[in-house]
Amino acid sequence: MQTNELLDKIFRGARSQNGWLPTPVPDSKLRELYDLMKFGPTSVNCSPARLVFVRTEEGREKLRPALAPGNVEKTMAAPVVAIVGYDTRFYEQLPDLFPHNPAVKAWFEGDEKVDFANTTAFRNGTLQGGYLIAAARALGLDCGPMSGFNNQAIDQAFFAGTSIRSNFICGLGHGDPEKVFARSPRLSFEQACQLA
To answer: Which ranges form a coiled coil?
Structure first.
C-alpha cells in the first residue's frame, strides 16, 4: 500500500461510525489489533491501557445501563465495543517493562505520588487509546469512539475491585456507510498551531 493510501485509510478517509454492518470481528483480529497497538510509545514504557473487548450479549447487557441514551442503539449494534481503561497501579509492571532502570517503580509508588501516578496512567492510557484507533483502521476495521457514558457505572460493572478506571469506549467492526454523518470541519493549521 502506498503512503497516501495508508494515510487515507487511517486518517483522511476514515470516519467515526454511527452504525454497523452485522459482520463479526474474530478474536484473532482483536489479538492482532492489540499486538500492533502495544508498540506505540508511552512514558518509561508504562503501558497503562487495559482493554475489555465486549462482544457477547452478556457483556453488552452489562454495558447498556452505563450508556447515554443517544449512544445505546449504535453501541449495542457494534460487533465489538472496546472499553479503553487505564491501570492506576501500572507501575507494578515497570520492573518487567522498563528493566534497565530498577528504580523506576519508586517514581510512582506511595501516597504522596498518587496524583502523579494517576496523571501518568490517564495520559499514557489515552495515548494508547489513540494507537488502538489507528491500528484498528490500519487493519481494516472501522471505529466509533465515544465518551457518552457513565464512567462510574462502567468501572463498577467491569473493573470493580481493581485499580483500573475507564477512559472511553470505541465500537469496532465494519461501519454502515449509510449512517455516517457528513464530515464536520476541522481547525486550520493557523487556528490550532503556533510556531515558536
So the answer is: none
